[in-house]
C-alpha cells in the first residue's frame, strides 16, 4: 500500500510545476525534450556557417556553444534570475527565425557582423521584456490565441520536411524515409494507446528509440562525424570579433521583435495547454527578457540568437508533463553535450525522418491548443473577424512571398516568409481599430 502511494505521488509530480521528482524518473522526460529539438537546435548553425564560409572546426565550435547556450537558456526559463525567465517549462534553442537574415548579413559583411548584431538586438529585446507590462496589454488574448494557431500551422511544413528526410536531402521523400517516419509515428501512437500510467507520456521517446534502431538496421545512420573528435572540449569566449554595422543591427532588431511575438505565443500556448490557465504578464515578460538577454550571451560565445522552441511546447501539450525539475535534466544533458562532444555528436546522428515521425503529431497538437484558446476567448463577431482575417492574410500572403516584392528589402526580410509575424501584426492592428461591439442586432 505504501509503495503504491509513493508511486502515485511520484507520477503526479510529473504534472506539477514545482513538485520534487526522483532523478531516475526525471531523466527520460528531459531526454525526450532534448531529442525532440536537438537537430533543430544545430541546423541553423550549419546553414549559416556554410553561407559564411566557415570551416569545419569553427562550425563544430559554434555547435558546441549552441548546446551549452540552449541548456543555460532553458535553466534560466525554469529557474529565473531576477526578472529574467518565466518559471515555466520552456525549452530554449537556436532560432530558425533569424536564418534567412543571417545568411544575407553573413554573406555581405561576414560572421562577425552577425555576432555584433545579435549582441545589440538581444539587449533591445531583453529590455523590452523587462518593460513588457507597459505594452503587453495591446496583445489581447484573442491575438495570442491567433498567433499560437499560426505557429502550429507554420510548423506543419517543418514536420513534413523532416518526415521526408530534411530539406535539401538527396533522398528526400524516398521509400527509406517514408518507412522510418511511418514506423516512428506508429510507435508513438501505439505506445500511447497501450502503455500504462505515466509511461504513456514517454511515447515520443519510445518512437525515437525504435525509429533509431530501425535506421541502424537499414544502415542510414551516419557516424562519420565521430572521426577525430575530442572527448572533452571547453567553449570559446568571443571566438569571432564582433562587427557593428547599422543596417545589420536594425534588421536584426526587427527580427528580434518577430521572435518576441513567437515567444509570446509559445508562452501562452504552454500555459494554456500544459497548465490549463492563461499566462500571466509576469511570465510573458520574463520569457521575452530571457529570449533577449540569453541571445546576447549567445553572441559572446560566437553563437546565434536563442528562442523558445515550439516543438517542445507541442510535447508539453501532448504529455502534460510540466515538472520544472524533469525538464531541467534535459537542460543538464544539453550542457554536458556541449562539454563532451561525443554526446552531442551521438544525438546529432538521429535521422531527420525519425524526428519527423514524432514532430508531425506534436505540431498538430499546437494547432489544436490555439483553437482551444480561441474557443475560450469566445466566438463573437469581433473575434471571428480578427482570427479569420489574421490567419488568411498571414498564412495566405506568406505562401506567395512574391506579393512582397514591391516593398523595401527590410520589409521582405521580416514578413515575406514569416507568417507568424504577419499574423501577429494583423491581429494587433485589427484589435486596436475594430469597434468593441460588432454583434449583429436582431
Task: Please specify the SSE layout and strand pairing.
Elements (H helix, E strand, L loop, with lengths): L1 H12 L9 H29 L4 H23 L13 E3 L4 H11 L1 H20 L10 H23 L11 H20 L8 H16 L27 H30 L5 H20 L5 E3 L1 H10 L4 H16 L1 H8 L3 H26 L3 H18 L10 H7 L3 H15 L9
Antiparallel strand pairs: 1-2
Helix pairs in contact: 2-3, 2-4, 2-12, 3-10, 3-12, 4-5, 5-9, 5-10, 6-9, 6-14, 6-15, 6-17, 7-8, 7-14, 8-14, 9-10, 9-11, 11-14, 12-13, 15-17
Question: How would you sum up this structure, described in words?
Answer:
- The relative contact order is 0.20.
- The protein is mainly α and 442 residues long.
- The protein has 17 helices and two strands.
- It starts with a helix and ends in a 9-residue tail after the last helix.
- The protein has one domain.
- The protein has a two-stranded antiparallel sheet with strand order 1-2.
- Helix 5 runs antiparallel to helix 10 (281-300).
Mean pLDDT, rounded to whole units? 87
> What is the 3D form?
globular
Q: Return residue spans where pLDDT drops below 50 for at least 5 consecutive residues.
A: 1-7
Distance between the termini: 62 Å
Describe the main β-sheet briefly.
Answer: 2 strands, antiparallel
**DSSP helix count?**
17
Give the topology string: H per helix, E per strand.
HHHEHHHHHHHEHHHHHHH
Counting helices, strands and paired strands, the structural category is mainly alpha
Helix content: 55-70%
Strand line-up in the sheet with most strands: 1-2
Integer-rounded radius of gyration: 21 Å
Q: How many domains is the backbone divided into?
A: 1
Q: What amount of the residues lies in strands?
A: under 5%
Number of strands: 2
Amino acid at each position: 500500500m505504501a509503495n503504491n502511494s509513493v508511486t502515485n505521488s511520484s507520477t503526479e509530480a510529473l504534472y506539477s510545476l514545482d513538485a520534487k521528482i526522483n532523478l531516475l524518473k526525471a531523466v527520460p522526460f528531459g531526454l525526450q525534450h532534448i531529442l525532440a529539438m536537438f537537430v533543430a537546435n544545430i541546423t541553423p548553425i550549419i546553414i549559416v556557417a556554410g553561407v559564411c564560409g566557415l570551416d569545419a572546426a569553427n562550425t563544430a565550435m559554434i555547435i558546441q556553444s549552441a548546446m551549452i547556450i540552449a541548456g543555460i537558456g532553458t535553466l534560466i526559463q525554469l529557474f529565473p534570475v531576477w526578472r529574467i525567465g518565466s518559471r515555466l517549462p520552456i525549452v530554449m534553442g537556436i532560432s530558425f527565425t533569424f536564418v534567412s537574415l543571417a545568411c544575407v548579413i553573413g554573406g555581405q559583411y561576414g560572421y562577425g557582423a552577425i555576432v555584433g548584431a545579435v549582441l545589440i538586438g538581444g539587449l533591445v529585446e531583453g529590455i523590452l521584456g523587462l518593460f513588457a507590462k507597459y505594452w503587453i496589454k495591446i496583445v489581447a488574448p484573442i491575438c495570442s490565441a491567433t498567433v499560437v494557431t499560426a505557429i502550429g500551422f507554420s510548423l506543419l511544413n517543418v514536420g513534413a520536411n523532416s518526415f521526408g528526410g530534411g530539406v535539401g536531402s538527396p533522398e528526400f521523400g524516398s521509400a527509406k524515409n517514408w518507412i522510418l517516419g511511418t514506423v516512428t509515428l506508429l510507435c508513438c501512437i501505439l505506445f500511447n494507446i497501450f502503455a500504462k500510467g505515466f509511461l504513456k507520456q514517454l511515447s515520443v521517446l519510445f518512437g525515437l528509440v525504435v525509429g533509431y534502431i530501425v535506421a541502424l538496421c537499414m544502415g542510414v545512420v551516419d557516424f562519420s562525424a565521430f572521426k577525430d573528435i575530442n572527448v572533452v572540449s571547453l567553449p570559446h569566449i568571443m571566438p569571432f570579433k564582433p562587427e557593428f554595422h547599422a543596417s545589420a543591427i536594425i534588421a536584426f532588431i526587427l527580427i528580434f521583435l518577430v521572435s518576441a511575438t513567437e515567444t509570446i505565443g509559445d508562452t501562452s500556448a504552454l500555459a494554456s495547454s500544459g497548465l490549463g490557465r492563461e499566462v500571466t504578464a509576469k511570465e510573458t515578460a520574463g520569457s521575452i527578457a530571457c529570449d533577449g538577454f540569453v541571445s546576447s550571451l549567445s553572441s559572446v560565445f560566437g553563437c546565434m540568437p536563442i528562442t523558445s522552441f515550439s516543438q517542445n511546447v507541442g510535447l508539453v501539450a501532448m504529455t502534460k508533463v510540466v515538472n520544472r525539475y524533469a525538464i531541467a535534466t534535459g537542460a543538464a544533458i544539453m550542457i554536458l553535450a556541449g562539454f563532451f562532444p561525443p554526446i552531442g555528436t551521438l544525438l546529432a546522428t538521429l535521422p531527420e525522418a525519425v524526428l519527423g515521425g514524432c514532430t508531425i503529431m506534436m505540431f498538430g497538437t499546437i494547432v489544436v491548443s490555439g483553437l482551444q484558446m480561441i474557443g475560450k476567448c469566445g466566438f463573437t463577431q469581433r473575434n471571428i473577424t480578427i482570427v479569420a482575417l489574421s490567419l488568411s492574410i498571414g498564412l495566405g500572403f506568406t505562401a506567395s512571398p512574391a506579393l512582397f516584392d514591391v516593398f523595401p528589402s527590410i520589409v521582405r526580410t521580416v514578413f515575406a516568409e514569416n507568417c507568424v509575424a504577419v499574423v501577429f501584426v494583423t491581429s494587433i492592428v485589427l484589435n486596436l481599430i475594430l469597434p468593441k461591439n460588432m454583434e449583429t442586432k436582431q
